[in-house]
């Protein structure tokens, strides 16, 4: 299949990244290999979008630090980048809205790119053959871009994220429909997770199962931000669990401690707060 016939995909991962770990980065590589391997897609970029402080999750440190660590973790990557839009919002932003923001951003960029493309005129009789070939090459390239269309944003997540759809009051039903129906999921499964069974037991997920890509993680990696923070509180090494630059940043700023883990204790998670407020109106 020619590249022009493949759907270009941008992988978007939303989450706390508190802190970002090697596993987070590994999810992108697994998803990219899988999607490219289907022959139907071409992954062109990966975006890490740390949640804002207004999410109010227990132990969530400042977005400034989480964004900086993510940027340090990806500074040598040729295709991963960190986007700060979500983290800079004063209020918590639903994942469906973050997906929409990035899809609209891609559409606007594609529109601007097409408008900026030079108008190709028919070559005159005296124009050199080399110049004619150059014009033909430019025209062909422009046609290929139009054929490909605007890249599609898809949400990258782990199986625990998928199963969170079943937590009462955590997600709006219409948001789940938008995420899996309008955009799509690439879910990396972990040992002990039965994602396929969870999809089967959900009418919404079952309806859009063709837009949910399950990727088996054959090389088990059970690193999590929670375990990283626990090790740090206990004075244990986290080397080789997070990128070296992230470890250095954590140590320099003494980011995780028993005190930081108590942040937002007793505070209701933002999605639950919003759900309660909407129910009262």
Automatic annotation (TrEMBL):
A Pfam family this chain is assigned to: CTP_transf_like
Biased composition (Basic and acidic residues): 129-145
Keywords for this protein: ATP-binding, Magnesium, NAD, Nucleotide-binding, Nucleotidyltransferase, Nucleus, Phosphoprotein, Pyridine nucleotide biosynthesis, Transferase, Zinc
GO terms, biological process: ATP generation from poly-ADP-D-ribose; NAD+ biosynthetic process via the salvage pathway; negative regulation of adipose tissue development; negative regulation of DNA-templated transcription; nicotinamide metabolic process; positive regulation of adipose tissue development; positive regulation of DNA-templated transcription; response to wounding
Pathway assignment: Cofactor biosynthesis; NAD(+) biosynthesis; deamido-NAD(+) from nicotinate D-ribonucleotide: step 1/1; Cofactor biosynthesis; NAD(+) biosynthesis; NAD(+) from nicotinamide D-ribonucleotide: step 1/1
Subunit structure: Homohexamer. Interacts with ADPRT/PARP1.
Cofactors required: Zn(2+); Mg(2+)
GO MF, one example: identical protein binding
Species of origin: Physeter macrocephalus (Sperm whale)
Catalytic activity reported: nicotinate beta-D-ribonucleotide + ATP + H(+) = deamido-NAD(+) + diphosphate; beta-nicotinamide D-ribonucleotide + ATP + H(+) = diphosphate + NAD(+)
Family per similarity comment: Belongs to the eukaryotic NMN adenylyltransferase family.
GO cellular component term, pick one: chromatin
Entry's localization field: Nucleus
The protein's Enzyme Commission number: 2.7.7.1, 2.7.7.18
Sequence ranges assigned to domain Cytidyltransferase-like in this UniProt record: 12-230
Region span, Disordered: 105-145
Gene3D superfamilies assigned to the protein according to its UniProt record, in alphabetical order: HUPs
Designated name of the protein: Nicotinamide-nucleotide adenylyltransferase
Ranges in coiled-coil conformation: none
């Amino acid at each position: 299949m020619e590249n022009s016939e493949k759907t270009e995909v941008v992988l978007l991962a939303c989450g706390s990244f508190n802190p970002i770990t090697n596993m987070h980065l590994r999810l992108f590589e697994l998803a990219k290999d899988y999607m490219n391997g289907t022959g139907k897609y071409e992954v062109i970029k990966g975006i890490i979008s740390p949640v804002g402080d207004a999410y109010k999750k227990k132990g969530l440190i400042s977005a400034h630090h989480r964004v900086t660590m993510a940027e340090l973790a990806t500074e040598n990557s040729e295709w991963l980048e960190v986007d700060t839009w979500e983290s800079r919002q004063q209020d918590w932003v639903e994942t469906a809205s973050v997906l929409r923001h990035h899809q609209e951003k891609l559409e606007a960029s594609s529109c601007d790119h097409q408008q900026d493309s030079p108008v190709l005129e028919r070559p005159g009789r005296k124009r050199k053959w080399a110049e004619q070939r150059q014009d033909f090459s430019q025209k062909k390239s422009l046609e290929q871009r139009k054929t490909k269309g605007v890249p599609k944003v898809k949400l990258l997540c782990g199986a625990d994220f998928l199963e969170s759809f079943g937590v009462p009051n955590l997600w709006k039903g219409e948001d789940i429909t938008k995420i899996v129906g309008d955009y799509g999921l690439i879910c990396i499964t972990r040992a002990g997770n039965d994602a396929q069974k969870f999809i089967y037991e959900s009418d919404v997920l079952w309806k859009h199962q063709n837009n949910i890509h399950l990727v088996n993680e054959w090389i088990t990696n059970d690193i999590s931000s929670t375990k990283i923070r626990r090790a740090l509180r206990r004075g244990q090494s986290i080397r080789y669990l997070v990128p070296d630059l992230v470890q250095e940043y954590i140590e320099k700023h003494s980011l995780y401690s028993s005190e930081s883990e108590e942040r937002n204790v007793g505070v209701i998670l933002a999605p639950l707060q919003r759900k309660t407020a909407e129910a009262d109106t």
